[in-house]
Amino acid sequence: MRRSRQDARVLWHTSPTASTEARLRDLVASLTLTEKVALCSGAGTWHTTAIPRIDLDAIAVSDGPAGIRGTATDLAEVRIASDEELSISFPAPSALAATWDVGLAERFGQALASEAVREGVDVVLAPVVNLQRTPVGGRHFECFSEDPLLTGRLATAIVEGIQGCGVAACVKHFVGNEAETRRTTAISRIDERTLREVYLAPFEAAIQDAGAWSVMAAYNRVDVHGVAEKAVGHPWLLDELLRREWGFDGVVMSDWSAATDTVSTGRHGLDLVMPGPDTVWSAGRLEEAVAHGMVSEAAVDAKVLNLLRLAARVGALDGNRTRRRTAVSRDGARALSRRIAACSFVVLRHELNDLPIGDPPRTVALIGPNAVAPYLQGGGSASIPLRQVESIEQALGRRWPGVDVTVSPGAYARVNPSMLTATALRDPETGTSGVRVDYLDDGGAQVASALSADWSGVVRALPTDIADVRVRTVVRLEEPGWHWLGAAVVGRHRVSIDGIEVSRSEDRVGEEAVLDSSANNPAAAGHAIHVDVPRDVLIDVTAQNVDAGGLGVFARAGLHHRVPGPSADALIAEAVEHAVTSDLVVVVIGTNEDIESEGWDRPDLALPGAQNRLVDAVLAVRPDAVVVVNAGAPVELPWLHRASTVLWAWLPGQEFAGALTDVLAGDAEPSGRLPWTLPVRHDDVPVRDGIPDAGDVVDYLDGLDVGYRGWLRSGVQPMLPFGFGLGWTTWRYSDASAGPWSANGIEVGCTVENIGARSGREVVQVYVEASTGEPRRPRRWLGGFGIAEVSAGERRNITVRIPRRAFEVWDTDQGAWRLPAGEYQLLIGRDVSDIRNRIAARIDDEFGDDVELFDFEGRQTRSAQLTNGGPK
């Protein structure tokens, strides 16, 4: 098994010693079959089973791509209402990827682990290493990049950071889970070479280089080697590749409710079915399969051994969690979140020299729906509970005391209007402030009734013999004009507004409502009401009590109200008026939880609402306006080249306001580089969606040409290329060099000179091209990258390692990696299109035994012989 630099640290947690392994096997032998089977299913939503007689504690797991969500069965609103300190919200993974900073990624992993330790969590369900194959993928923001090497390098660093603190990382979702549409039934059809070179590559790096302790098997099926089987029970993926070839000795857990068959999952490499307690292995199902010879007890023993090994690593065996450490304090985590956010911002346009800001502005026009309500984290399992965070207006005032900030939304961008607060509601029976909640049995009879003084739109953990929940309340409409009232519900329901039924359904739902995220942010059904004089309106909603199995029991009836307000044209006119009269104009546009979330894919790349019209109108009067795009995944920006300054700010976590102010004021440089390609139009995208066909198949027909490789193959010009980013300064490249070859690949060097007026951070990118036509390769692909921080007017030499694997291809006939002979170009640049220097390399035979290197002017600089084992 390959190991990275962590070997040199001699960490206690890498591989068990022979004595530890022998003890674990003895413990397995001491367990009854019933105990062993119990260990292999979750004890609940976020915990495994404890066996006190062998000093085995429950292992706690938590979502964690951008912060530790926690292990409470009750979710965000329960934690927010408590007095406990909440975990830090970090920028989304795509934002971290935009830093291209492996060291920062490792520090982020340490911060996640530190938060996990404080939360009592043993396994962080992160990182997500699926690729951004299509920009409309619902979890695009949760992935790092469209490039496998960049994804793998960052994932490796995060895993090392997490596990160096004694907490387990769980690399997910294994494998071919690049879209959300019908994700639980879709079949990802991927040829083996593409699978090996592209989609498995980040998993291989995280497992073999960083030694990840756990892997999450995905919802989808995978069609490879003639077997189209669910990832949670795929014999080749789990047994042959993961266990035998890669030597993985950690735990493979299912994605939540992904395991639906007892025998296939029991026979193959799945170790833990989540969530519990009711799973395909519990209630005697797996024991019966063993008794009938359909699953061997040896297979169960192997699962239990892996689980005990994980327990030993995280300190859940023998109660030895004292070895875990918090490498990053809470204040340090907040500072790190702010630093990552600022560093991740990508400067898409910088045509004027008045940024960063020198003299403090006296007046600022803060414009845009995301200026009023920024989208800080993506929807679904990546979101964590958040209390009130600092607003952009507050951050500007703190940075420039006395500044006069006007805030105007400029456009409507959300599907649902704001939730009604409990203080605006009255119980229709008593007139007391609040909501009347009746609990109904399956026949519609009332079982119980209560007043809720702080209705949040959802009630959880009711007994399953409660079939429906009826919510009634009276709202007083005071303001003249058109009001809109509605309710967001899930499953069977009836919604009546002011005596008018606006929605009804008899369709009951179960766990699928959670798996497809329709339960997270349902669209409200409602009714417009015109008010001349103040009056009361009754809202009457009956909603299903949804039994989602291990994913919880809940009833949702969110109450929404849109007050009379200005038209879209009036909102834009108000924003323009503020822009004209202000020293500084900052327009913050973007997406929200209605648009980017786990559970569904976007239909297109359009910004919601009239945001593009808003930007056009502001730029017409203030071409110097700073436009900030607050979105995780690409959106169409038809006005981009008419703007003078545009920042891409991602889904930036809780410290967004401070980070944005740091960047505007020059306290931090926005040195991010795009980890994906920005299209002009959705129609130009090489893979427009990941929607399965009528047979539920997603054919990966783009093969090796994922992301920017597909753009290069098609010849269509994107709006901005992969790797693009300007920063606050400018750069000159010189002195390209390469060599020597080694078992680890080749080092490429160059000198970067900061020829601007400010210190800056440059991301040097090295791409590879192969001139030979066979085997078919991408036109160009990322071979390596490095970072240099250079003061104004100074130079810095930087070395980038290109791993041997960057030149290799998977030979499906031989079942092995090989290094094709031929001419290669090593291209040194600022992005995939902006190449500053090049070096030629010639590999003279098909096994890569003889390599010659030439500088960018064609002069031979070095030759070497390379074998499968390294230089000879």
Question: What would your notes on this structure say?
Answer:
By secondary structure, this protein is of the alpha+beta class. Strands 12, 13, 14, 16, 18, 19 and 21 form a seven-stranded antiparallel beta sheet that branches. It has a seven-stranded antiparallel beta sheet with strand order 31-30-35-36-37-38-39, with no helix packed on it. 23% of the residues lie in helices and 27% in strands. Residues 3-13 and 856-872 have low confidence and may be disordered. The protein has 20 helices and 39 strands.
**Number of contiguous helices:** 20
Measured by DSSP, the beta-strand proportion falls in: 25-35%
From the helix content, strand content and strand pairing, which structural class follows? alpha+beta
Task: Give the biggest beta sheet.
Answer: 7 strands, antiparallel
Helical residue percent band: 10-25%
Unreliable segments of 5+ consecutive residues: 3-13, 856-872
Total beta strands: 39
Supply database-style keywords.
single chain; 872 residues; alpha+beta; seven-stranded antiparallel sheet; globular; disordered N terminus
